[in-house]
Amino acid sequence: MVDCTQQPNPMTTITVSKEDYLKAIAEAEAEGTKVHAATLANWLSVTRPAVTFALKRLTKDGLVSVKNDGHVQLTHRGREIAERTIVRHHLIERMLSEIFGMSWYEVHDEAETLEHAVSAAFEKKLVDKLGKKDVCPHGNGLALRSPAERRKRGMCLLSEAEPGGHYQVASVYERDRKLLEFFDKEGIRPRSRIAFDERNYDGTISISVDKREVRLGISAAEKIWVVKSQ
Questions:
Q1: pTM for the complete prediction?
Q2: How far apart (Å, rounded) are the C-alpha atoms in residues 89 and 106?
């Protein structure tokens, strides 16, 4: 693909699809991923031709640039839109959890749809009602942080934790509803305390949650950020 860095057209219409793509790019970057078309096809569960078409449109609108090696980056305007969408997603999750009492593992999917319908006026109402709390029901901060930034703050993935150590769940990956339901069933939630018992011969890990043993595969343990606790 050709590297294009056109200036954004002030008359550009920001659609739901554009917001989804821009937010996906920002979130993938925050997970330490170098974003390419294949990344977005997997992230958004769409076809490669659909991604190619969308990137051409976003490039023309001045919202992304695509380098010669296929690396996709947000422009300043594209990042502004992505961050605005993320803020609204965060607020919707908190509204559903704190006002309507929806379970923490349910709110992400609902917010994915509702985030696009939030006006600036309603966003302000939500901030006034909920306050400016920085953390969503999954423990993830409003500001997207890369794995390196999380580690600088004393976090590590549960898969990297030390046997014999005691930890508190800081945040969990929120884009897999079935995984979140599994975590909830096992008592693994933000702020829950975990004792890391041992690494098992079959590649799983054994942890204790509320004095009950739970075995996790590494793929699941890699979706949980923890901090050491006393």
A1: 0.88
A2: 13
